[in-house]
Amino acid sequence: MNNGDTLFVLGANGTGKSSLMQRLKSLNRENSRWISAHRQSWFESDLINLTPQNKRELDQNYFHHDLNIVSRCRDWNAGNRVNLAIYELVEAENLDNRALAKAVRVQDDQLVEILRKKEPPIAIISRLLQSSNLPIHLFLHQDEQVMASKSGSEPFSVAYLSDGERNALLIAATVLTAKPGALILIDEPERHLHRSIISPLLTRLFALRKDCVFIVSTHDILLPFNNPKARTLLVRSCKYSEGGAVEWDADLVLSNVQIDEGLKLDILGARRRILFVEGTENSRSLDQPLYSLVFPEVSVIAKSNCNEVRHAVAGTRAAVDLHWLKAFGIVDSDGHDSADIEQLKQRGIYAVPAYSVEALYYHPEIQRRVAERHATVTGQSAEMLLTNAKTAALQALSQHADRMSRKVAEKAIRAKVIQQIPGKVEIGAGQTIEIRIDTAAEVLAERTRFDARFVANDLDHLIQRYPVRETPALFEIARALGFQDREQYQSAVLKLLMDDASALTYIRSLFGTLWDEMILP
To answer: Quick check: pTM over 0.70?
Structure first.
């Protein structure tokens, strides 16, 4: 890395981010600054009284401590480390003042003008804090104590700033007083600061210290997103030996990766295998909770609709810089014909083997397993519960046969129209093109199909082919099986999948080769 470069290190808890930061510190011991995640942020006194000799001794002691692997989880003499950051801030201001005084004495007018225009470090931090949503003014008191005033208040010691304000001050002081060319390591800044503060603060510090290299370890995927020129290292795991991490498994996302910004945000928080599904992130969504259980060790990311899933899978697969990612998608069949479903599969997108995801929750095999579990608690007959559920569902569907048949027919008619839209060759030939579809026959054929399945009591087929979620049928199934409502039954299905590996395997098998493709190296 070169001066001016920034690298964000992302990873879940336990993947070794802090160990990596400590290793980088030990490898760059001569000119680096490490702002640890577990640092103390309070001052043990209103006054910061360090002598130059104290400062040199502390520097030496911290130098040796930070090279030890235990420094990633423990700090030595934490109170003085906080004091040292303020001491260096004051010393930087004093050095500027002494340089200015010397230039005046020797009558070096050109240097005087340069130094006079140079903004003091404490003034820079005041400006940074105020532009980062912290209305704080800092200044150096005559006794060389750093004081603060908040929103025009009476001056007070910086020891009385809030926890977040002190942390912002300490980060800024550490960065601004670093030597040119320093490697600055910042470990989990969001632990002490809200992102509305830390994001603008870091961005401005990066801009002010282009003569340094920054590495920031974080759980906040929006931090690298807010700094598009930065690279991101996604740490997956690490191996330990004799108490310390010795090897890391990670992937690098370059700053110039050609990918949609929203998709990049999804990827930064994901595993190496991503499954894009329809639905939302809210608690009422059926897709994401189910697929997260069915496909473990895979990042399941919800997209609002089928087109968004297609775009996400295609965009991720097309990004050559993300070759280490394996992206797949699941969409509702929702009227897709077999040819379209096969084309989707070739692109890594699998269709739910039914009209929508509800068919998986209410699949006869899943209903049976849920009924058997419920019967062991209530003492009822599982077969009787299932019979009652089927009867209640068919009765509810009978009142909506015409509407559901028309909806499925409508999708089929639209698909046929799209298939017959002329291409460039046909249009270039200048021929008259007619698209003719007997819509009445299509609707009648679909209604006939519905009626045939209904007479045969084929509830499984009806749930798979028609939008039964728009009818009371699913509620009637849930109630007949002994649940208060659909939500309670669907929660029972998720619990079943958590407890019963064979049920999980069954649902997974409905998607054919998807699981095998995802787990292949």
So the answer is: no
